[in-house]
Amino acid sequence: MYLYDEIDQKLVDERVIQFRDQTRRYLAGKLSEDEFRALRLRNGLYVQRYAPMLRIAIPYGLLSTRQLRKLAEISRKFDRGYGHFSTRQNLQLNWPKLARVPDILAELATVQMHAIQTSGNSFRNITTDHFAGVARDEIVDSFVWCEVIRQWSTFNPEFSYLPRKFKFAMNGARADRAAVAVHDIGLHAVRDAKGEVGFKVLVGGGLGRTPTIGFVIREFLPWPHLLTYAEAILRVYNRYGRRDNIHKARIKILVKERGPEKFREEVEAEWAHLKDGPSTLVREEIERIESRFSRPSYANLPATDTRLEAALASDRAFSSWNARNVTPHKRPGYAAVTLSLKKTGVAPGDITAEQMDAVADLADRYSFGELRVSHEQNLILADVQQADLPALWQAARALGFATPNVGLLTNLICCPGGDFCSLANAKSIPVAEAIQQRFDDLDYLHDIGEIDLNISGCMNACGHHHVGHIGILGVDKNGEEWYQIQIGGNQGEIRPGTAASLGKVIGPSFARAEVPDVIERLIECYLGKRDSDAERFIDVVRRVGVEPFKESVYGKADQRSARRRGHLAAA
Amino acid sequence: MAKLIKDRRVAADTWQLLERGPEDDSAAALPGGDLIVPLSLWIARRGDFGARKGEIGVWLDAHEGPEAIANEVGRFAVIALRFPKFGDGRAYSTARLLRERYGYRGELRAVGDVLHDHLYFMEQCGFDAFALREDQDTQEALSVFSTFSDGYQTSVLRPAPLFRRRLAAGKP
């Protein structure tokens, strides 16, 4: 956990005072809707379908138990006793009162938290690998670099009003668990031949209306230049990004319109002025930030634990949870545990205040008082002794957080959708639930193996449907909710050789009730085509293409037009 | 006379800002007094201003970069940057470039949709004069310059980033 110093704290406190004054002037009629809108958005406050929604920043997904308990307290005191973890590792409250938001921000500031730049046309919360600092394939501890970026991007005066929102992701391990290719800027840590740290820099990726894989603007950026290079990119974007059309304002459109090479030249020309300037990072600063992170005081443990081995051998339910929800740790004798927030019947990512308190207790007891939020909307206890796994499993099971489905179909990513969000074309939570109910047989789920299923209620793609192995998109047709299915997306190179990709739509969309059948047919098609159970759904789609899957859903090409006519008649 | 915030004080505005018009490149007579002219007029008639009485300034619209006047910033007593809408953030970059890259030392004025809540960051980027939108309370706006006591990044007012200042102070 990065611990604020006096200046960090003061800035957050001053932000609360500023927003309190802005809210007061708005309520007094001194600020127009439009003017206040821009100010509240940069403090995470939306006005949603039924009520305001407050998005609280959890920088790079890292939380202390003290903070989680404060979130529980806030959700009880100011909301309806629950919250929603988003795909950007933040927490959303769905029912706060606008006039009380300054009080909520003041409460957050007491535990070094805030809602700064979680919305609006600003530089958003940076996201990273939820196994940062503990992964066996670590290149760098990405939390440290995320904090460097967090500070630089917080209240950066020049970038007060970017053309559009700006999302930054950082990955510090060999496997890409941060989906860096689908962010405005993605950083992938690398080491050169001498072992010096640098970053591969990707620009112009993103989902939304114009899903795009980012292009590599620089293969190796030595770490001291991280901020000056980012500043050059942001400056070019701030000056030349489109402002005439909100749907064409993201940096990916600028990159496309200029062409990646031309864009690179512009950035390099700007950087030539900034390179080696005062923002050039120095080792003392990286060490200072590193030293402000609290670190677990690990015990020296053997690599395997005999009690764990015995429990695994004797209890099948435990061993299947261990296989799915427990990840190897870089320290011998430790493991990282994923608490699944994807129990059937609960909206993915939702958590009650009581559960927050209970998870905080577990993290205090088993994982040095810290936890992480993953972009897959689960919670991670990253530093658990192997010997504690059986007891932790029992406790998590009692809380409903031990569904052994991490990486499996029911671990689906899902936005709040039409139940909450005013942008949504369709509901997404009931679709998620119907799929989870259809695939409730654990043996079958394990047989299907690793698969990402992502659901978004509109083309803004908060549920990351373009990068699901199966993606579901809610669409509106003449006021009715329909669902478009795509396959073949991939969030990033989690395994070597499977680069990030965008899904392809398989055909005309479906009514909500049809969706579980369609998913089932896609899965059956996959099971029939795979070479072995080591070949995942995404691997088969890449090998055989989309056509066999289309056929399994719509019938052969000659039958399709008849089906389509029937379908449209029904619509 | 319109009110202005200049160097964190309320001041009278002695300048006349000429809107852009079709006659920009014509040889029409210029009004007397201190004048802020549109960039297009400046470019068309930059030779005409030397003999004129009264001081001269130029204003740039949000899409007009500082490169156009990069080599002659010393000729202006005022450069004004226009915010067509408060949410158009291009002039923040223009302001920094004028101050940091092109060495402009004269008055840098924010004009257009200039609102209370944005003055702090504008000042950080190098603006020292603010022609607030008419409905804004100039007196009340004076308080915003102390909104934040520090900032992490480099800015025109704080050329060294916080981490360098911390190091220089020997603070851990």
Give a brief rundown of this model.
The complex is a heterodimer of chains A (571) and B (172). With 571 residues, chain A is an alpha+beta fold.
Describe the protein in words.
In chain A, strand 4 and strand 5 (91-93) form a beta hairpin. Chain A is globular, with a radius of gyration of 23 Å. Helices cover 38% and strands 16% of the residues of chain A. In chain A, strands 1-2-5-4-13 form a five-stranded antiparallel beta sheet. In chain A, strands 3-14-15-12-11 form a five-stranded antiparallel beta sheet. Chain A starts with 5 loop residues before the first helix and ends with a helix. Chain A contains 19 helices and 20 strands. With 571 residues, chain A is of the alpha+beta class. The model of chain A has no long low-confidence stretch (mean pLDDT 94). An eight-stranded mixed beta sheet of chain B has the order 2-1-8-7-6-5-4-3. In chain B, helix 1 links the parallel strand 4 and strand 5. Chain B has five helices and eight strands. Chain B has helices at 39-45, 90-101, 119-124, 138-141, 162-168; strands at residues 3-6, 9-12, 16-17, 35-38, 56-60, 78-83, 107-112, 129-130. The longest helix of chain B has 12 residues, at 90-101. The chains are: A alpha+beta (571), B alpha/beta (172). The A-B interface holds A 7, 10-11, 14-15, 17-18, 22, 30-31, 35, 38-39, 121, 151-152, 154-163, 227, 235, 238-239, 243, 273, 277-279, 281-282, 284-285, 288, 291 and B 65, 86-90, 92-94, 96, 101, 115, 117-118, 120-122, 124-125, 137, 147-155, 159-164, 166-167, 172.
Topology:
The complex is a heterodimer of chains A (571) and B (172).
Chain A: H1 6-27, H2 33-41, E1 45-47, E2 52-56, E3 62-64, H3 65-78, E4 82-85, E5 91-93, H4 101-109, E6 127-128, H5 142-153, E7 168-171, E8 185-191, E9 197-203, E10 215-222, H6 226-240, H7 251-258, H8 260-274, H9 283-291, H10 306-314, H11 316-325, E11 326-328, E12 334-339, E13 350-352, H12 353-366, E14 370-373, E15 379-385, H13 389-399, E16 413-414, H14 429-438, H15 442-448, E17 453-456, E18 470-477, E19 480-487, E20 504-505, H16 515-529, H17 537-544, H18 547-554, H19 557-570
Parallel strand pairs in A: 6-7, 7-8, 16-17, 17-18
Antiparallel strand pairs in A: 1-2, 2-5, 3-14, 4-5, 4-13, 8-9, 9-10, 11-12, 12-15, 14-15, 18-19, 19-20
Helix pairs in contact in A: 1-2, 1-4, 3-12, 6-8, 7-8, 10-11, 12-13, 14-16, 16-17, 16-18
Chain B: E1 3-6, E2 9-12, E3 16-17, E4 35-38, H1 39-45, E5 56-60, E6 78-83, H2 90-101, E7 107-112, H3 119-124, E8 129-130, H4 138-141, H5 162-168
Parallel strand pairs in B: 3-4, 4-5, 5-6, 6-7, 7-8
Antiparallel strand pairs in B: 1-2, 1-8
